[in-house]
Amino acid sequence: MSDPTRTSQSTRHATDPAGAAARTPAAAVAPMSRHPLAAAFRLLITAAALTGLVLAATGTTGPAQLLTRFTVQANIAAALVFACSAHRAWTGHHPVSPRIAGALVPFLSLPALLHYVLPAADSTAFTLPTTASGAAQAVSHQLLYTLMPLAVLADWLLLTTPRGFRLSYAWQWPAYPLLYLAFALAFPAATGAPSPTVTTALTLALALCALPLITIGTDQVRPAPRLHNNRISPTGIGPLK
């Protein structure tokens, strides 16, 4: 009679193709699935972010000073992440980590919230500098304050599976914005914006902590999107068909 233990050991150390296939994880041999529509949508998001940044730079007398603004930094990060996500969706590789891609939701929602809901905080370093009105400035504001947050929300809600965000992201995502807020309070001249008042700073800190919690909570209860052919987040393993 054969020994089951010995059989499993020999299978584990087998060097023939059958033994190698038995030891290879299923995820390593799964066929890559390309998502061209998701890739095209993310390329459009990248183009919108870059266009808004260029127009914002042309509408100010100090383009280099814009790099110190949180809105500009968040949109540069969005352009890089979505360009990488578009490439991965087109080639069928694994999507960008939810820890990185998901952080864009609160990062881009905060400037829009300050611009449209909290006018008192619209002059802080978290938003674009207030300059003379012009066509380029108006278009850049629409792209960076309106289109980009809505596009990121649409990408998250329509092209990713729910329950991909972890609770640990609730303290990881606000880390940089809170450090930026502390920097803006300590060195307002370096950001090119007036130092926020105590009330404004507390409001910003509260928003920075609340937005990740709202995003993670919404991700836990939202329904799964129906765009199965273009959804890029990994799904669970189902039965064989």
Automatic annotation (TrEMBL):
Question: Is-annotated flag, keyword Transmembrane?
Answer: yes
Please list every transmembrane segment annotated in the UniProt record, as residue ranges.
Answer: 39-58, 70-88, 100-118, 138-159, 171-191, 197-216
Biased-composition ranges, Low complexity, are 16-26
Ranges where the record places region Disordered: 1-26
Tell me yes or no: is Hydrolase among this UniProt entry's keywords: no
UniProt keyword terms in alphabetical order: Membrane, Transmembrane, Transmembrane helix
Compositional bias ranges of the Polar residues kind: 1-12
Q: What is this protein called?
A: Integral membrane regulator
* Top-level taxonomy: Bacteria, Bacillati, Actinomycetota, Actinomycetes, Kitasatosporales
